[in-house]
């Protein structure tokens, strides 16, 4: 342990002050002012280094615990100092006479006081040590937390990097909504895979219609779930949904307003059906036609929306012919863009467009849902089970294709 | 407005420039129907919605009133069919074409 000069002086200060506190009752000061008080006292009264030798000499006869000044054990020094404080020169002290009286009257009391001071000083040192240790551990914890935070941030940047490229970031909470959706969608896919394999097993085992009915019901409800969570996310992150970034690349290849085309879905479902009655065949054909017509209408609505937004962004409200001021036009365009982003605009057309934009993917999902439901209503339970299996299979293969494609060996360019 | 609904077999009512209105119109056009389109500016839109809701109450016989907060709405044969969702749903189930034929909007 290192008891340098500073430590000694510090201890002395504490001890001395402790002694003073005990013996000069009117001296009241808080712990914080202790050091300044002690320092001023110390400065004014004695020079420790100079006096150490003196004290030692005068007490050699009385004390058997005196050791060399430079390598002194704490307690020994304490004893020496405490003993010497009695003989402190009177200049600078408040009531020197009191000291003399106390010394001469009862050495027991003094000894007890000395012990108390030692105790007080030791306790304060222990307290200080504990406090410092607490600070140290807090500092370590803080450093740890900062490191974790940095790692988490880096991960978020890495994961969110490609997300930011694709979403417009209209609101501050974009990423959290997207992250939640991606997680839910991940679970959805897992569940779909499970259901698909259950369907396959049941069909191969020639399960009863009752069993199949339950599986079909679950399957339909599962698709309803997907449309539901998409609808929720569309409220805040519609552009993200439309971008299809939450799907694998091959699925994205077939993207139509945030998902698969209803006509595509129906085609996949009916691809596996070879046991349709004539009535069923015509019903399915009619459904596919209706679905296609609705799909076309929605597509045209989307195009119209794009046109409208585009016009709003490019039209010059001043309408002055021959305006060649580039900066002015840019400023106008920027104003329109900001209006687009902030949703604050007097242009009813723009508001309506943005509102409708949020509804279009919902309409597309609604069409998907309705088309699937109608399809299943045409089919028998067994046929519906095969249809659902076909759908699940299709998506699985599509996703697998994505992985294969991503893992293919590249030709160096 | 009422007159328009009464006089025309198919009426699509919506806000000016609304793309959903466009969807409804395109769908009907694709079926061979030529719908009469009635478009409102912002000021009139609120009125229109109120009127439509009034009609909806009458149609439903004061019982179950469907909330029509959104335009566009479609009238067929002078009667309120519903919004775009209803139009598409009815079309998917195959009920739309018969209704249109009945209203004289479609000829085979």
From TrEMBL, chain A:
Residues 128-155 form a coiled coil. Residues 112-127 form the BZIP domain. Its main location: nucleus. SUPFAM superfamilies: Leucine zipper domain. One of its GO terms (cellular component) is nucleus. Keywords: Coiled coil, DNA-binding, Nucleus, Transcription, Transcription regulation. Belongs to the bZIP family. This is BZIP domain-containing protein.
Automatic annotation (TrEMBL), chain B:
The keyword Nucleotide-binding does not apply. It is found in: Cytoplasm. GO terms for cellular component: cytoplasm. InterPro entries: GlrX-like_pln_2, Thioredoxin-like_sf. The keyword Cytoplasm applies. It comes from Musa troglodytarum. Signal peptide: none annotated. NCBIfam families: GlrX-like_plant. It comes from the Eukaryota. Belongs to the glutaredoxin family. CC-type subfamily. The lineage of its organism: Eukaryota, Viridiplantae, Streptophyta, Embryophyta, Tracheophyta. Keywords: Cytoplasm, Redox-active center. This is Glutaredoxin.
